[in-house]
Amino acid sequence: MRGVKIVDARKVETRNWPEPAPAGEEVVVRVEAAALCGSDLHGLYETPGEKKCIPGHEAAGVVTAVDAARRFKEGDRVVCLPFLTCGVCDLCRAGIVAYCRAKKGVYGFSLDGFQAQHVRIHESSLLPLPEPLSFEQGCLMLDPIGTPFHAHRRIATNGTHTVGVFGVGPMGLGTLVLAVHLGARVVAIDPAGYRRDLALRLGAAAAIDPGAGDVVEQVRAATGGWGLDRAIECCGKAEALAWAMELTRPLGHVAIIGENSQATINQSKHLIHREMTLSGNCGFWLGEYGQIVRLYEVGFRGQDIITHRFSLEQAAEAYALFERRQTGKVVFLPNAG
Fold it and tell me: What was the pLDDT predicted at 260?
């Protein structure tokens, strides 16, 4: 089969890989749509050295071969989750699989992932993809839609809110379209002109360029001086979190999706004396999956964040374009044509 190989920093090839076979509760899935994620970029593509595993941790497809699987059969449409978990700890039983206490691996990082024609995956890492949802919709379920959905649910976004989305890469775009679907007024902040324009097309009321002046002043001007009811930091930049904390009103809520180890928070100014809430978000809880599916069933168009589709043979082009921030969400169609 064909699959992506990251040979070194910024060097990607499409190669032949051994065809996987089912074993025990591991099944084979024919991958119909597999997405590129920022963590593929920063954690794999931009770092030196050969990566041993096929990348990719967001996908949907069809089960094509089983051995001793109990939950899925050949022909089932599925969403692939990245985590190989123990399935028995308290967090797994609660559906909070991202924090499994005995996690066995992560597809696309320590196990062969989904940017290939087929993948062998444990059936506990699959969710059913109901008709009439498309495979492209399914491959967005975990990160660009699922994580923001979890964040919005925790901060109770609604139509009375002005929401700031800091960074409108794929995660931020998913955050934006969900906020718009919930009726909120969205202000997008991003240095990339392509992504600001895309944010406006997807329903943002305003798109702020950090290079055009003081971000706090620009957002206050765009919100009549009031600032934000909710802010969601999606780019992992210390300055973005600082802006979010400064702009969110007393009793507001700031949600963090972007990864960063350098940010500074003034607990007195930002939290105690404004009674603000701060939360981190990673993935979604399995109990929320049905709610996400229901959003699509009533007309939510999360797939609109997809701007580019590539074959596996175009992997090098796809990664390079994604790194230049000249895309929204990028999706591979491994078995198309």
Answer: 82
Domain around 305: 2-139+301-332
- Residues 211 and 192: their CA atoms lie apart, in Å, by 10
Q: Give the per-residue pLDDT at 322.
A: 97
d(CA 214, CA 153): 30
Q: How many CB atoms lie within 10 A of CB 277?
A: 15
201 SS3 class: helix
Q: Are residues 305 and 282 in contact, defined by beta-carbon separation less than 8 angstroms?
A: no
Residue 248 and residue 318 share a domain: no
Note whether 201 and 269 are same-domain residues. Answer: yes
Whether residues 117 and 184 share a domain: the answer is: no
What are the residue ranges in the chain where pLDDT is below 50? none
- The pLDDT value recorded for residue 177 is 98
Find the distance separating the first CA and the last CA of the chain, reported in whole Å: 14
pLDDT for residue 319: 98
Distance CA 84, CA 89 (A): 13
CATH assignment at residue 188: 3.40.50.720
Which residues on adjacent β-strands are paired with residue 228? 248
